Amino acid sequence: MAGHSKWANIKHQKARMDAKKGKTFTQLSRAIIVAARNGGPDPETNFQLRTAIEKAKAASLPNENIERAIAKGAGTYDSDEGQLEAIRYEGYGPGGVAILIEALTDNRNRTAADLRSAFSKNGGNLGETGCVSWMFDQKGVVRLEGEIDEDALLEASVEGGADTYEMTDDPVGAEVFTEPTNLEPLNRTLTEQGFPVKEAEFRWIANNYVAVTDPDQARSLLKLMDTLEGLDDVQNVTANFEMANELVLQDTR
């Protein structure tokens, strides 16, 4: 399983290096709205909503914003905002790197224009639906942070129906992978057994990777990824590249 989360790991490294917040309040609120709309306003019975609220609280989104987002999703809050819809976009970065973008938007034309501009200004191009998605599989991922007994984790992972897990060094912990439909039971099993669960999420994981070794290409690619993730309509960005830590570090100096 080693390497299945390369961009996720790079994001964690960059977040610590440049002290950026992973998501804007707008992005976090939209995730809550859609989760409440899809599964109801009760986080106890809506796992998607519960994880969205946990991420929002971790990013210090005020409680009143969270409550307002839940109400909007449930249809109990008067708002002039358009209906949000989930759309997946696909494209290529410098060097032919495959990129998947998950967005929540109330204006498809605006979102597509913003994405097209971000790609073109950073050496990539927005592609057609299906052009790169075949290179990725969606998985449920439970991320643990802290000291972990690997034997105990193996036992709990089997009990929770996980496919596999990967120990991590930076930060110290592990990532446990499962089928998307099994994410909630796995998360509950690990939590109940006292593992240091940091977050549970759905993640697209690449089937193969492009090695990036050229410093200029690395710089352009990381700038593109940062630009895409900075757009309010964008919720998640996934790519199939790997690069040495030294190249990630150069981008933060």
Short description:
The protein has 9 helices and 10 strands. The chain has 253 residues and is α+β, with helices and mostly antiparallel strands. Belongs to the TACO1 family.
Descriptive overview:
This protein is α+β, with helices and mostly antiparallel strands and 253 residues long. Helix content is 42%, strand content 25%. The protein has helices at 6-18, 25-39, 47-58, 63-74, 108-121, 150-159, 183-192, 215-229, 245-250, and strands at 85-92, 98-105, 125-126, 136-145, 164-169, 172-178, 197-206, 210-212, 234-239, 241-243. The strands form 3 sheets. It has a 4-stranded antiparallel beta sheet with strand order 3-1-2-9. Strands 5-6-4-7 form a 4-stranded antiparallel beta sheet. The longest helix has 15 residues, at 25-39. The two termini are 31 Å apart. Residues 16-22 have low confidence and may be disordered.
Shape: globular
* Number of extended strands: 10
Q: What is the fourth-level CATH superfamily of the largest domain?
A: YebC, transcriptional regulation domain
Percentage of residues in strands:
15-25%
Strands of the largest sheet, in order across it? 3-1-2-9
The radius of gyration over CA amounts to 18 Å
Q: What structural class do helix, strand and pairing data support?
A: alpha+beta
Q: Write down the domain tally.
A: 3
The CATH first-level class of the largest domain comes to Alpha Beta
